[in-house]
Amino acid sequence: MDNQRLFLWLGLAIIVWITWRTWVEDYGPEPAARPAAEEAFPDAPTRSDAEAELPALSADGLPALAPEMPAPDPVAIERTIRIVTDVLDVDIALTGGDMVRADLPRYPWRKDQPDVPVRLLSSDLDNRFVFQTGLRRLGDGPEPNHLASFEADRSEYRLEPGQNEMQVILRWQNGDGVRAYKIYTFRRGQYRVDLEQRLVNESPEVWAGAAYLQLQRRHRPPGRSMFAVDSYSFSGPVLYDGRAYSKISVSDIHSTPVTQTLPNGWLAAIQHHFLAAAVPTPGVEARYRASARDNVFTVSAVEPVIQVAPGQTHSFSNRLFVGPKLQSQLRNTAPGLHKTVDYGVLTLLAEPLFWLIDRVHDFVRNWGLAIIVVTMLIKLAFWKLTAMSGRSMAKMRRLQPRLKALQERYKDDRQALSKAMMDLYKREKVNPAAGCLPILIQMPFFFAFYWVLLESVEMRQAPFALWITDLSSRDPFFILPLLMGAAMWFQQRLNPAPPDPVQAKIMQFLPIIFTVFFAFFPAGLVLYWLTNTVLSALQQWRINYVIEREAKT
């Protein structure tokens, strides 16, 4: 088997894969038809009943279908308090006592607009994305749900220098001796927010009810474009069942809501690089529901009904997360929450690869240098295997004149030519297929690196050096792709040319073809491929030198 032929087919396969993905994203079939209300949304957004949806309780404490509730008063929603930490700038509405706006000061939308932060939560009609939490009462009577009015002592809370933790307390009472509190705990450097919902029963009757957590968002799928990396990432609701998380299609839950009873689960609304998540009280078996109306999806979790006797207090311990998909913080918030960084089918390879890059980054403090160092470590790990392949390639290169002579001798008899070539390989102890091994080894790492760079928010807008100010986007001047193409051309000159003239011609164009396609890949990925190509070329040059020296002795 001709190793150059396999290399050619692998290269063409990559190009076909990239072209197919691009065609599907740009010209593929449109999503299923949306409901009429969704189609009308861009021209005339209106507040829908779905935006005021309360999870309902049945007699056994499990949520039933949510009733239609009157929409909250927009003026009341505007009554907010502001919380500012070193990483979050949040508004909490006194109607409901929930986070309705969250800006991320450390994450600008664009590299060239550092003063415009990512706004993840918003109560705006066009971009609605809010938490809704509260307590539901079994039976009639007022309850501290996300439509109730809360009070706070101050209109603004700030995490002061030297202060590592801050609590924000909201109060509610019904006048009959039942009081409720929402106690938010914010910590320095953390996007996790602890929420304690505390009920104090000073009435003469038993209070029965349950806590719920809910996320509501107006669905806006990412646009399809070859050059928009977020178009390849899932955006929408997800549920976790304690082992794996499920992505939920918003178009499907318009007609068929999803209902599950899960222990140790969580719910979230995710997008490229960012998410908001809610985690029920650990150890309880909550009932989850995902539905959508008027292009607004709702995911909720209702905990089991509990009873609070007169004179007693009960607390529900919940966790919220609103921010970037920082894997260390996600792991500390809830089991499995780090899986929202979706590396796809190559997760088993991509996760340890990211772990290694992250550890190296702790030392070098530069993601570009970390990519170079990890590439060198990968190359070192497979050094002996690639050296064996390199020796085979070097011997093949020395056999080129003899192979050309065989081609001339048997130019009219391909069967005889194949037999003569195989006999030559056998006498010289050369395995032409050995040169394929490095390529086969590199392909999984190449695609795993692609997803690590695409999905890891740690590398979002990360600078390297000089003109490379964002490793997650393309090289603005295409210098790295050009260097990579030159390195591929140099490496090609060190390897034996294919015996077939047509293949040899195509091989000459591969560096140009790869340069064009890599021009629009993230700069970090091109940096990896450039580093790997340079190291491979240097290794092959050294092997060729050794083989030539051995042949002369």
Total separate domains:
2
- What gyration radius follows from the Cα positions, in whole Å? 30 Å
**Helix content percent band:** 25-40%
Per DSSP E runs of 2 or more residues, the count of β-strands stands at 21
Give the strand line-up of the largest sheet. 9-10-11-21-17-16-13-14
The averaged pLDDT comes out at 79
Measure the end-to-end span.
30 Å
Described by strand count, sense and barrel closure, the largest sheet is: 8 strands, antiparallel
| Number of helices, where a helix is a run of at least 4 consecutive DSSP H or I residues | 14
Going by CATH, the architecture of the largest domain would be: Distorted Sandwich
> Globular, elongated, flat, extended or rod-shaped: what is the shape?
elongated
CATH topology of the largest domain: Beta-galactosidase, Chain A, domain 5
DSSP strand content: 25-35%
Stretches where pLDDT is under 50 for at least 5 consecutive residues are 1-9, 22-47, 59-73
Return the structural class.
alpha+beta
CATH top level label of the largest domain: Mainly Beta
Q: Can you put this structure into words, describing what you see?
A:
By secondary structure, the protein is an alpha+beta fold. The chain folds into 2 domains: 3-10 and 351-552, no CATH class; 31-342, Beta-galactosidase, Chain A, domain 5. The chain contains 14 helices and 21 strands. It has an 8-stranded antiparallel beta sheet with strand order 9-10-11-21-17-16-13-14. Strands 7, 12, 15, 18, 19 and 20 form a 6-stranded antiparallel beta sheet that branches. Strands 6-5-4-3-8 form a 5-stranded mixed beta sheet, with no helix packed on it. It is elongated, with a radius of gyration of 30 Å.
